Amino acid sequence: MDEKKLAIIATKGTLDWAYPPYILASTAAALGYEVEIFFTFYGLQLVRKDLSGLKVSPLGNPGMPMKMPFGPEWFKNINWNIPNIIQAGIPGYENVATALMKKTIGNNGVATIPDLRDLCLEAEVKFIACQMTVDLFGFEHSDFIDDIEYAGAASFFDFAGESDICLYI
Amino acid sequence: MSDFDDELDASGLNCPLPILRAKKALNGMDAGKVLHIIATDPGSVKDFEAFAKQTGNELLESTEEGGKFHFYMKKV
Lengths: 169, 76
Description:
The structure holds 2 protein chains of 2 kinds. Chain A has a 5-stranded parallel β-sheet with strand order 4-3-2-1-5, sandwiched between helices. The mean pLDDT of chain A is 93. Chain A has helices at 19-30, 73-76, 84-89, 93-107, 113-122, 131-136, 153-160; strands at 5-10, 34-39, 126-130, 149-151, 165-168. By secondary structure, chain A is of the alpha/beta class. Chain B has helices at residues 17-27, 44-55, and strands spanning 6-10, 34-39, 58-65, 68-74. Chain B has a 4-stranded mixed β-sheet, with helices on one face. Chain B has 2 helices and 4 strands, in the order βαβαββ. By secondary structure, chain B is an alpha+beta fold. The A-B interface holds A 1, 23, 26-27, 30-32, 108-111, 119 and B 12-17, 19-20, 23, 40-41, 51, 54-56.
């Protein structure tokens, strides 16, 4: 059986959007796929050494339920429908939402992003960072983990052109 | 079914961790040996079927008992 290939472009830099690329890459690797992730634009946040800057914001995102991860069941079931203008106006709102999301992630036995990233690297998922966006955002190579290569769009197509599945996330 | 060589308790873990842990456990086993996996994620029922289909490992049995899912996976 020929090894199948999965190519992913990761373009989002928030805590919630960090999950799809890392979950799919680690699972595909476990299924025997050869996997490559190309990190570009805000996706570069997912390969920084320090992942504590990843946040989630319910602001302008009507699809995100805002529920409390603690307290009695009736309290946890409330969906806090807080108007955008209040979310935007309260300093630290994003930090609170991020802390609540991390607590919810833990409560549900969902892996943390640093863990999933390590699992990907252990499974030899290949990471490539877009050099153009590294320069554009003023990052240094020292901001990123060591297990990563730097290249451009042509390198992505070298792998993606032969892939069985190609995802833009 | 009670015959197995290794056991993995993935209770409380959510997608994709049961699959990733199972893959890791199978890596350390010899061909023909059986891994017993215990999980609580309801999604794992379909996922272990899909895992077996795609990796060639044989899912000998998949059962549910008191909210726990038991899988017996024979390494190819």
